[in-house]
């Protein structure tokens, strides 16, 4: 009887120990899953890096040259301000070493292409992103014509009047917020330019041109053409100056010879 009681007690203790071990194991797995889910949730960024990059390139090419020319400081309350671009800090930490080498400015790791560096930022440095509301530059793509720039070679889709009206309203609100008419002459000029450069093309008529004021590329092409023309004409200018000076020297020598021949010898 005592043996049976002892065996039952040992079996009971073994069962309790096994239950505790299983509970602890499953509990740890559940906790680990919760932590992993939390990380994955923190990793989610509801903002397109590609479209944000396209929007910034449009601003950099078709707006910022005019802003710099007016010596105008965009307010931080304006959604076009660099601080309101979620990915701006990461973009500034891209180091383009060579055509096939990009380097991370945070950890100095190298990659063969920019897209791999973007993936690295998403996987390793997403915790550095400021995911505050209003920081997604991609949300402004409708006003800035990102689709026109990104899909310029693809066939045009049918115009949607409701979408066009929405994008035009967003565009005009950006002009009012970023370049208030009551902020002086420079702000008024940039307000009018922004409407003409971006907002007027939001129409289904198809008669308005995108970015009619041009941008950085056009300025660079003109500067390059003038530079090449100057380099071509400069040697020709020096050649003309050289030939002119040589003719002048030869003329002086001929004049001296004529003068010497025309002189009379003194009688002895």
Automatic annotation (TrEMBL):
Transmembrane segment boundaries: 221-244
Keyword hit for Cell inner membrane: no
GO MF terms held by the record: transcription cis-regulatory region binding; zinc ion binding
Keywords on record: Membrane, Metal-binding, Signal, Transmembrane, Transmembrane helix, Zinc, Zinc-finger
Signal peptide: 1-23
Repeat as UniProt keyword: no
All residue ranges annotated as the C2H2-type domain in the record: 102-125
Protein name, UniProt field: C2H2-type domain-containing protein
Organism: Manihot esculenta
């Amino acid at each position: 009887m005592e043996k049976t009681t002892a065996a039952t007690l040992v079996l009971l203790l073994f069962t309790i120990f096994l239950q505790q071990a299983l509970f602890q194991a499953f509990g740890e797995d559940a906790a680990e899953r919760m932590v992993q889910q939390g990380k994955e949730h923190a990793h989610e960024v509801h903002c397109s890096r590609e479209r944000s990059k396209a929007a910034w390139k449009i601003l950099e090419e078709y707006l910022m040259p005019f802003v710099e020319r007016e010596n105008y400081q965009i307010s931080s309350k304006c959604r076009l301000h660099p601080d309101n671009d979620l990915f701006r800090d990461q973009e500034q930490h891209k180091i383009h070493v060579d055509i096939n080498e990009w380097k991370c400015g945070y950890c100095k790791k190298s990659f063969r292409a920019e897209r791999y560096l973007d993936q690295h930022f998403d996987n390793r440095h997403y915790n550095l992103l400021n995911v505050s509301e209003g920081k997604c530059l991609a949300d402004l793509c409708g006003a800035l014509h990102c689709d026109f720039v990104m899909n310029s070679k693809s066939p045009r889709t049918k115009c949607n009047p409701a979408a066009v009206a929405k994008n035009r309203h967003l565009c005009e609100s950006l002009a009012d917020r970023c370049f208030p008419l009551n902020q002086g002459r420079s702000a008024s000029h940039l307000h009018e330019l922004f409407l003409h450069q971006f907002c007027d093309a939001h129409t289904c008529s198809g008669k308005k041109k995108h970015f009619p004021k041009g941008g950085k590329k056009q300025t660079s092409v003109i500067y390059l053409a003038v530079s090449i023309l100057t380099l071509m004409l400069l040697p020709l200018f020096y050649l003309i100056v050289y030939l002119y000076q040589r003719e002048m020297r030869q003329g002086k020598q001929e004049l001296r010879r004529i003068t010497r021949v025309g002189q009379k010898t003194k009688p002895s």
